[in-house]
Specification:
- It is a single chain.
- With 210 residues, the chain is α+β, with helices and mostly antiparallel strands.
- It has eight helices and four strands.
- It has a four-stranded mixed β-sheet, with helices on one face.
């Protein structure tokens, strides 16, 4: 059995990695970390010096960053069928890294009211929020999945951005996004991961109130 440990907090981007872990359907141990204490403690900083979650340890190797975790797990467990064949990975890599780079930056900056002036757009890898969002919308319009006819690890990462972005208002509720979110939320692994993280969040809340 593979040695696979998942470090997370249920109120974090760790929910993306949890979903991916449930998609690959391999046994793993979960370590829940607290923002103020264990996440910044020496034991976890030895795993991720950033003091951020999620992270995984697999057979002695450490992987951080959600997009990297998704891609790594797809390759580590090919039986799950979550990565296209190597010759068919152009869209897979394109949209996985689009979501991890331009989309993440554009959405975060826009959410805090930090949009570049028109004359400074060239300094930003994504240009501006509106162009980035429209690019993603066009990529999803008329497609079931982001990288081709089959669901892949790219859909976990892109799908998490779309799901939570439309839920919390950092992405507009455009028809292509909402239809994609509906398809994703119907997946068994998505629902199972949500239930596990919701239960972990409730446990943390109960512990904090005692």
């Amino acid at each position: 059995m593979a040695d696979l440990t998942f470090y997370t907090n249920p109120m974090s981007r760790g929910r993306v990695a949890r979903w991916m872990l449930e998609e690959v359907a391999q046994p793993y141990e979960t370590v829940i970390l607290d923002y103020a204490t264990t996440m910044k403690g020496p034991e976890y900083l030895a795993i991720n010096p950033m003091g951020k979650v999620p992270a995984i340890r697999h057979d002695g190797r450490t992987v951080t960053e959600c997009a990297a975790i998704c891609a790594y797990l797809a390759d580590a467990f090919p039986g799950a069928g979550l990565a296209p064949e190597p010759g068919d990975r152009a869209d897979y890599y394109r949209w996985l890294f689009f979501a991890a780079g331009p989309l993440e930056q554009a959405v975060t900056n826009h959410a805090v009211g930090w949009d570049p002036d028109p004359e400074k757009k060239r300094m930003f890898g994504y240009g501006d929020y509106a162009d980035t969002v429209t690019t993603l919308e066009r990529a999803l319009d008329g497609r079931e999945w982001i990288a081709g006819p089959a669901f892949t690890a790219a859909d976990v990462y892109v799908g998490a951005a779309v799901t939570w972005g439309t839920q919390f208002g950092t992405l507009p509720a455009r028809p292509a996004f909402l239809a994609y979110r509906e398809r994703l939320s119907a997946r068994t692994a998505f629902r199972r991961a949500d239930a596990l993280d919701d239960a972990a969040a409730e446990k943390l809340k109960a512990g904090a109130s005692t």
